[in-house]
Amino acid sequence: MKMSRGFFPTLREDPAEAQIPSHRLMLRAGLIRREAPGVYSLLPLGIRAVQKVAEIVRQEMDRQGGQEIMMPLLSPAEPWFQTGRWQDYGDEMFRLKDRAGKLLCLAPTHEEIITGLVRDAVSSYKQLPVLLYHIGPKFRDEIRPRFGVMRSREFLMKDLYSFDTSPKGLEASYQKMFEAYQRIFSRCGLNFRPVEADPGTIGGSGSHEFVALSEYGESTIVTCDKCGYAADVEKAEYREPVPEPPGAGDGEADRPEAGSPEASTRAEVEKVATPGAHTIAAVAEFLGISARITAKTLFYRAVYPGDRSELVAAIVPGERDLNEWKLHSYLGAVSVEKAAATDVMAETGAPFGSAGPVGLHGARIITDRSLPKVHNLVVGANEKGYHFINVDPERDFDISNLTDLVLVHSGDRCPVCGETLGQAQGIEVGQLFKLWTKYSDALGCVFLDEAGNSRPVIMGCYGIGITRTVAAIIEQHHDADGIIWPHSVAPYDAIVTCVNTRDGAQVDVAERVYVALKEAGIATLLDDRDERAGVKFKDAHHNGFPVRV
Ligand code: ATP
Ligand code: MG
After folding, report:
1. Atom 13 of ligand 1, nearest CA residue
2. What's the half-sphere exposure (Cβ side, CA atoms, 13 Å) at 497?
3. CA 543, CA 482: separation in Å to the nearest integer?
4. Are 147 and 23 in contact (CB under 8 A)?
5. Res. 201 pLDDT band, cuts 50 70 90
6. Strands 74-76 and 386-391
7. Cβ(92)–Cβ(122) under 8 Å?
8. Which residues contact 435 (CB under 8 A, 6 or more apart)?
9. In Å, what is the CA distance from 115 to each residue of 12, 128, 129, 315, 458?
10. Which of 70-84, 137-151, 535-549 has the lowest mean pLDDT?
11. What is the pLDDT of residue 110?
12. Residues 461-469: what's their mean pLDDT?
């Protein structure tokens, strides 16, 4: 392609809207153009990079026995009602009505459509397993679209769905996709980690995310260098510290709490005044105790199918953060939102900041699993300016709902081997889910087994954000001058820059090099524009093609 005859709109200045390098570089190099918040056009260089990534994905899906199909982006509402996701998807779903008043949505994902497709076409175990995939736009009305195509409201996804007759079959399909993802992201030149993940609104159980490491990534992952354990922080578990005997080890050992001999002298609960102490740190300081024997009480409103809701009090160690996803999945709720202070006061009589589980009414108490080991806990007394001390969870409040509620962070111990965990940021470029029979049950997708019994098909789904992957590649492959494309995904392999288009000899040489490269099968751009040399060099730098002549 000759640039003088092409459409290559670049920006001379850094766009103000771009906060991270990939977004800035994609706008500057003329890969994308913003049409509305979270809505982008892909320009010639952008679509070429996207097609390179899509082609790698296609090859690896086909290698594993996947077959490509194309499903509509306009999806009828009925199957979404059947699975309950017309409601569960909430405000993220774009909904519309046709002229006859029928409800439709712009598909945010395709489980509903594909399950119906396979239900109507498959009747016998002899037709399974099948792996079907689709590469096309998805629509999600994200609360905070940002970072260009990294988190947009319309984006390109590859989604493959597996249909098997047995758990073993699902395991095999999942493994095939796991291997395909490793090949895909390696071929894209990404530094990535597969991590254990939470299935979120897609549902089912058993999930991995593929995360491209980047300081601007929105995913936090924890990793163990010793045994290789890696998990999204939403899902991450940790091994609880072993209480150490006083006087031993690293100086932390002389704390008088958490299962130590002192802690086992179970004193009576006492109400003490803590005027003006509204935070854990302030309470600990006021009472002259370690924050390790405090617990905080956080209130949430959990909503269940059929609009039933309840107020929930989550009790976590004072020095730790609550992992809201763990609470959400423990409750099995449709949504879990922070409760308003006025609601909490009205239903429990407990003021925020002084609330605690002892004598609490009107809320279901969910307690972090580590707390019953502490027998001299300090908690809010449900009275402004007061706390209870010497609280023994087993004795003093309802701990029938006990689970791991804590957000894991670097420095915690690995749940597998006990080594210290590290933490990193990354961009989620793909995710795999075992759906089991969630969708086949809801939509009646069954098959007849060898004995003639009707059984639900066992499903998995596997997504890759194609446009987000291009952004992640740029995030990992750029310098101060611009993008440095890995060969495998570069929009063009080479650019020939004719420095002075008024010099006939130069034009002639440039033309001959350009033609020779093209004839050798190398995708080449010829910069034959009547522009200053500086402009051309700058554009070539920004575009970062692997070979520059
Ligand atoms: P996130 O947690 O980032 O919102 P998700 O878990 O909701 O993503 P999935 O439903 O797993 O996303 O979709 C599969 C893939 O599609 C993701 O791994 C990601 O690469 C991509 N993707 C999801 N949402 C967006 C978006 N708003 N913009 C661009 N790509 C996206
Ligand atoms: Mg995901």
Report:
1. 463
2. 18
3. 7
4. yes
5. low
6. unpaired
7. no
8. 111, 202, 203, 204, 459, 460, 461
9. 48, 13, 13, 40, 11
10. 535-549
11. 98
12. 98
Neighbouring C-alpha atoms within 13 Å toward the C-beta of 249: 10
Report, as an integer, the average pLDDT of 329-334. 90
Secondary structure letter of residue 41 according to DSSP = E
Token couple for 176: 């095939």
Q: State the pLDDT confidence band at 49, using cuts at 50, 70 and 90.
A: very high
| Average pLDDT of the chain to the nearest whole number | 92
Average pLDDT of the residues in 518-538: 94
CA 163 – ligand 2 centroid, Å: 20
Q: Which residue, judged by its Cα, is nearest atom 8 of ligand 1?
A: 428
Nearest atom of ligand 1 to the alpha carbon of 202: 10
Q: What is the DSSP letter of 413?
A: B
The DSSP code sequence of 357-412 is STT--SSEEEEETTGGG-SSEEEE-SSTTEEEEEE-HHHHS--SSEE--BPP-TTS
Residue 245: the pLDDT is: 52
What confidence score (pLDDT) does residue 334 get? 84
pLDDT in tens, 293-313: 999 999 999 999 888 999 999
* Phi, psi at 175, each rounded to 5°: -65, -40
Determine how many CB atoms are found less than 10 A away from the CB of residue 101: 6
Ligand 1 pocket test, pick from 26, 150, 157, 195 with the greatest ligand atom count within 8 Å of Cβ, gives 157
Residues with CB under 6 A from ligand 1: 109, 140, 142, 151-152, 155, 157, 200, 202, 428-431, 463, 465, 467-468
Residues 6+ apart with CB under 8 A from 477: 189, 483, 484, 485, 486, 544
What is the amino acid identity at position 148?
Answer: G
Structure confidence at residue 203 (pLDDT): 59
For residues 481 and 28, is the Cβ–Cβ distance under 8 A?
A: no
Q: How far is CA 58 from CA 172, 179, 203, in A?
A: 19, 14, 25
pLDDT at 347: 85
Question: Exposed (0-12), middle (13-18) or buried (19+): which is 311, by Cβ within 10 Å?
Answer: middle
Phi, psi (rounded to 5 degrees) for 173:
-65, -45
In tens, the pLDDT along 105-146 reads 999 999 999 999 999 999 999 999 999 999 999 999 999 999
Q: How far apart are CA 181 and CA 6, in angstroms?
A: 35
Measure the N-to-C terminal CA separation of the chain; round to a whole number of Å.
Answer: 15
**3-state class of 330 per DSSP?**
helix
Residue nearest to atom 26 of ligand 1 (CA): 151
Can you name the residues that pair with 547 across neighbouring β-strands?
494
Written as one letter, the residue type at 67 is Q
